[in-house]
Design a protein that fits this description.
The protein is 44% helix and 12% strand. The chain has 264 residues and is α/β, with parallel strands linked by helices. Helix 5 links the parallel strand 5 and strand 6. The structure holds NADP nicotinamide-adenine-dinucleotide phosphate (NAP).
Amino acid sequence: MNMDLKNKTALVTGSTRGIGKAIAIELAKEGVHVLINGRNDEEVERTVKEMKLEFPDTFPQNATADIVDTQQREALFKQHPQIDILVNNMGIYEMMKYEDVDDEVWEKYIRTNVLAANGLSKFYLPKMIKNNFGRVIFIASEEAVMPSGQMPQYCMTKSMLLSLSKSLSKLTIGKEVTVNTIMPGPTLSENVHQIIEGMYPNEGMTFLEKEKEFMITNLPQSEIQRFIRPTEIGRLTTFICSPYASAFKGSPIRVDGGMVPTIF
Ligand SMILES: NC(=O)c1ccc[n+]([C@@H]2O[C@H](COP(=O)([O-])OP(=O)(O)OC[C@H]3O[C@@H](n4cnc5c(N)ncnc54)[C@H](OP(=O)(O)O)[C@@H]3O)[C@@H](O)[C@H]2O)c1
């Protein structure tokens, strides 16, 4: 499908693996030049080379930075001052008991999952508005609207992104610039794949059988009864980046496999 995104430039945070990498690949399929980000420079370089090989008409670039670190963000801005699309994908998560979430943990999650994305948006959004084209996307989670109770420190930051996204969207009135939030449900990143493999060491089971078993036991509310594939998030994100999605303004967009049981 032609999404009319050829020759746009996109920064996808956390794009050396998982959902971020899938988003980078789907954007590159549409001719977008993607800036690959992660903290590990070797991994970033490897991903850039891989992308260049697979999508030779595009110009993927190295955007190594720990985006939680203000100074490294500043260096990134100097290196890549102009982009058309910002996908704030990077985020950390882990299961924690509420009693174990002390102030240090709250602060770490807010700095990593909210302030890093906010810092990037604050720099790039005004430029997009001036340019009269731009897309900012926050990758949240279904836990933003349906906290499971298993990771309170994570859920709160993802809910915050919904609010931030709507506030920023208010700055784009009358412009061909949009700010939206995508809320994936449980997704089969490399991390999740490893966890599932580790939970069922029985060699007689295929991965699909393990996945099915996991879903029945742990996520019975999922209507697809499988993990979402990162590519599925990548394709949706690419559409939201396209000029065909101009009417999505400050929207929380669910792609959760039916996890959230309510209409809205
Ligand atoms: N997987 C799921 O089931 C799921 C469901 C809903 C929502 N989400 C959300 O989707 C997003 C991606 O999740 P994922 O599971 O794909 O993540 P992931 O597999 O853990 O990928 C993490 C990526 O972020 C990079 N990264 C980590 N910290 C960074 C930092 N400080 N600065 C720059 N890059 C950094 C990593 O590279 P380095 O380690 O080299 O820095 C890597 O490229 C997250 O926001 C997550 O909350 C995930």
